[in-house]
Automatic annotation (TrEMBL):
Source organism (scientific name): candidate division CPR1 bacterium ADurb.Bin160
Entries under SUPFAM superfamilies matching the protein: Metallo-dependent phosphatases
Protein name, as recorded: Calcineurin-like phosphoesterase superfamily domain protein
Gene3D superfamilies per record: 3.60.21.10
InterPro entries for the chain: Calcineurin-like_PHP (IPR004843), Metallo-depent_PP-like (IPR029052)
Domain Calcineurin-like phosphoesterase: 47-242
Molecular function as annotated in GO: hydrolase activity
Highest taxon above the source species: Bacteria
C-alpha cells in the first residue's frame, strides 16, 4: 500500500519533492526515490490554458480546445493567469459600457464550474496573472483600509474552495520560494514577472534570456518557442502559449495574437514534452 500511496501522491501533487512525500508518509526519502524511479506508471499529462480574459473570452476557441482534449484525460489542469479580466478596476482608460466586476466574477465562476464538471478528479492550479493583480492593486490604492480582508481576495470571490482549485499568487510564490512554480523540470510563469516587450521578434528567446532555464508562460497572446543548447550540451526550452480571449481587443484591434493552449507530458524523471497547440479557423494545429 505504501508504494501505491507514493505513486498516487506524486501523480496528484507533481510539484511535491521526494523529501515532502517522505515527510507526509513518514518514510525515508531514499525509499521514495527508489519506488518512483522503478515505477513506470506515473507519467503525468497537463493541460495548460491561459489568457481567457473572461468575459472577453472566445467561446468558440474554448469549445475547440475542449473537443480536442476530450480524450486526453490529463492529470493536471493549469490555468496560467489572466483568466478574469477586471477591466473596470484597471488603471487604464475604461469603457463605460464594459462589464461590471460583479458580472466578470459571475461569468468566471461559471467557467470554473464547467471546468470542474469536465475534469471532476483532476488537480486544478490557478496561477495569478497581471489581470488578477488588478484586484489587489485597486484595493491597496482605492480602499487600502480593506487590504488583506480575506472576503475580498480572489480565492474567496471565485469560490476556489468549492471547486477544489489551488491558487498560486505568482509574485508572492517567487518571493517566498526564490523561484517560480515548477512541475517536473518545467518552470511555470504567467509572463508579467519578467520585463519584456510585446514587440519582441522572438518572445520565447527573450523570456529564456531572462530565465536561463526550462519555462512555460503566456501573457503575450502569441505562440512561440525557443530551444537553447548550453555550454555543457544541456538542451533547454522556453514555450509561450497562445490565448483564448477575443483577438480584436478594443485597446489593440490590430495585433499578432493567436488562440492556443498547451499539452505537456512528464516522465518519472521530470522530463517533459510540450505540444504548443494553435487554434486557427477553429482547427487545432
Amino acid at each position: 500500500m505504501t508504494k501505491e500511496n507514493i505513486i498516487n501522491m506524486k501523480k496528484t501533487n507533481p510539484e511535491m519533492s521526494y523529501s515532502k512525500i517522505a515527510e507526509n508518509l513518514k518514510i525515508s526519502k531514499s525509499y521514495v526515490g527508489k519506488v518512483l524511479k522503478k515505477n513506470k506508471d506515473w507519467d503525468i499529462t497537463e493541460l495548460f490554458i491561459s489568457d481567457i480574459h473572461i468575459p472577453y473570452h472566445n467561446q468558440q476557441s474554448i469549445e475547440t480546445m475542449y473537443r480536442y482534449t476530450e480524450k486526453l484525460k490529463p492529470n493536471i489542469i493549469f490555468l496560467g493567469g489572466d483568466i478574469i479580466d477586471f477591466h473596470t478596476i484597471s488603471f487604464w482608460n475604461k469603457n463605460p459600457t464594459a462589464f461590471s466586476v460583479v458580472e466578470e466574477i459571475k461569468q468566471t465562476k461559471l467557467f470554473l464550474k464547467e471546468l470542474r464538471h469536465r475534469y471532476p478528479t483532476q488537480k486544478i492550479y490557478y496561477l495569478e496573472g497581471n489581470h488578477e493583480m488588478r484586484l489587489k492593486c485597486y484595493i491597496s490604492t482605492r480602499a487600502y483600509e480593506l487590504f488583506g480582508l480575506e472576503q475580498l481576495e480572489l480565492p474567496q470571490l471565485l469560490d476556489f474552495q468549492e471547486y477544489n482549485i489551488k491558487y498560486i499568487p505568482s509574485i508572492d510564490y517567487i518571493q517566498n520560494n526564490g523561484m517560480p512554480f515548477k512541475i517536473g523540470n518545467l518552470y511555470h510563469l504567467h509572463g508579467h514577472e519578467i520585463r519584456m516587450s510585446f514587440r519582441a521578434v522572438s518572445l520565447a528567446r527573450n523570456a529564456y534570456l531572462n530565465l536561463l532555464d526550462n519555462c512555460i508562460l503566456s501573457h503575450f497572446h502569441r505562440s512561440d518557442e525557443w530551444m537553447q543548447k548550453t555550454i555543457n550540451n544541456k538542451i533547454q526550452f522556453c514555450y509561450v502559449m497562445g490565448c483564448l480571449c477575443n483577438l480584436e481587443a478594443e485597446y489593440m484591434p490590430i495585433n499578432n495574437w493567436n488562440h492556443g493552449f498547451g499539452i505537456i507530458r512528464y516522465n518519472r524523471y521530470g522530463n517533459f514534452l510540450v505540444e504548443n497547440k494553435k487554434i486557427i479557423n477553429n482547427l487545432v494545429i
